[in-house]
Fold this protein.
Amino acid sequence: MDDIKKIEQELDKDIKEVNNKDKLEELKNKYMSKKGLITQLNSKIKDIELDKKAEFGKLVNELKTKFNTFYDEKNEYYLQEILNTKLEKEKVDITLSNYNIPTGAPSILEKTIEEIEELFISMGYDVVDGPEIELDKYNFEMLNIPKGHPARDAQDTFYIDGDTLLLRSQTSPVQVRCMLEGEGHVPIRIICPGKTYRRDDDDATHSHQFMQIEGLIVDKNISLSDLKGTMDVIMKKIFGEKTQTRFRPSYYPFTEPSVEVDVSCFSCGGKGCSLCKHSGWLTIAGAGVVNPHVLEMSGYDPKVWSGFAFGFGAERVAMLKYNISDIRTFYNTDLRSLKDFDRVEE
Ligand code: DAH
């Protein structure tokens, strides 16, 4: 019994000195290992007189419980402390401010062209491509614009080698290229968005490089009314369901008759405003019924085949739709204009 008391007093003293996990484990070793002080008390039970055995056993158990209670509580505390220190060490400071990396945005011009492509695709058209370096023959001759024709003057052209190779001044040569693929490819139903070039001085509405969207249909029994119906549907889709279309007589060497396609001003609804210069109408496209001579030059019998064609400026559509007043906005490298486009998208 005295031994138990002594050990308990020693334990009380030792407990006061435990101030970390290592010391706690040392304590466990000293009292509870195989040769530990408390463990050894157990082996003494057999030597105790019979009437004292029960009390001795009880006291040893109490001592054991005292130790275990202390150990479990402290152990839990130190484990938590170790974990906290580890977490503290591994902490990532997410409050550090990041660099402001500007992200890209699709250009409004690109977006406009893609939207128009989707509209025509949904109507069964194919989107085709043509070269930007073109033959005079396709850009002019086979579109019924021979050398010396006044229509050439309107398209001041960049020639590359004298007078045969040029930077295309319109996307219309793609019409010729499609037709030359032959009757095996009829009916033709294509649009061709692409870059065009003219020796224009750049200003708010002119650029030496701009985008056109060309369209061509060649089939049997195509008439001006098909062109009108198609333009009406497309313009409503681009500018809104309330949009009305108007067709004014015009002249292009490759179409006969030729028209100018106007839409009612979507900004004022046709009443007249600064956007439509108080006319109520905005001119969007040139178009017409394919000139029989153009069909013939590409090998189509105009008695069998007919078609319509149209062409419009992609920048003009984007400028009107998104209220952009200067065509150069599309081609400068000022990130602020992209930001403006971003805002438009919101
Ligand atoms: N190529 C013409 C231009 O640049 C636009 C055009 C008008 C295209 C009438 C056409 C068309 O296909 O039928 O001014």
User: Anything to note?
Assistant: DSSP finds eleven helices and nine strands in the chain. The two ends are 86 Å apart (CA to CA). Residues 170, 172, 214, 252, 255, 286-288, 309-311 surround 3,4-dihydroxyphenylalanine (CB under 6 Å).
